[in-house]
Amino acid sequence: KLSFVVYISYIERKFEISEGNSIVCTGRVNVLQEIEKKDLAQCCKEEDVKSLPLDANDVYKELKLRGYEYGPNFQVIIGADMEGNKGLLNWTGEWVTFLDSLLQFSLLHAPERALSLPTRMQKLSIDPVFHKKVIEKSQRGKH
């Protein structure tokens, strides 16, 4: 069983995640500027979703050819393009599978079919308010 400890310094706006005596992740927490925020209508265009050339079977077949075998809990990509620019995910409420699916998207764009593992991430921006709005909009469309 793994146990992680998360330390957040609100004054310095930094965080640190450790497991045992080892630091596994560090970073900064920043407030997004208004100019960086996306428009919900532009983000979730229905025609973009309908035009995705790869369905879930295609995506995970391609990833398997590259050496990755994802179990059912981590197969959350419903559709994608080959460039890794657009895709549709099944939000399960689990951040681990969500963040892993972002890495899966980047693998689809890689030109070679070789196994590669991420060792660092330069920048990751998540706007939790916008994320919640996208989820709510997609759930309204299902009912």
Characterise this structure.
There is one protein chain. By secondary structure, the protein is an alpha+beta fold. The longest helix has 15 residues, at 95-109. The chain starts with a strand and ends with a helix. The chain has a three-stranded antiparallel beta sheet, with no helix packed on it. A three-stranded antiparallel beta sheet has the order 4-5-6, with helices on one face. The chain is globular and about 45 Å long. The protein has helices at residues 40-43, 46-50, 56-65, 95-109, 128-142; strands at 4-9, 14-19, 22-28, 54-55, 77-80, 87-89.
Terminal CA distance: 39 Å
Shape, per Cα inertia axes: globular
Name the structural class.
Answer: alpha+beta
Spatial ordering of strands, largest sheet: 1-2-3
Largest beta-sheet details:
3 strands, antiparallel
Number of helices: 5
Helix/strand order, N-terminal first: EEEHHEHEEHH
Nearest-integer average pLDDT: 82
Give unreliable regions as ranges: none
Number of strands: 6
Rounded to an integer in angstroms, the radius of gyration calculated over CA atoms is 17 Å
Strand content: 15-25%
Protein name: Fatty acid synthase
InterPro entries: PKS_dehydratase_sf (IPR042104)
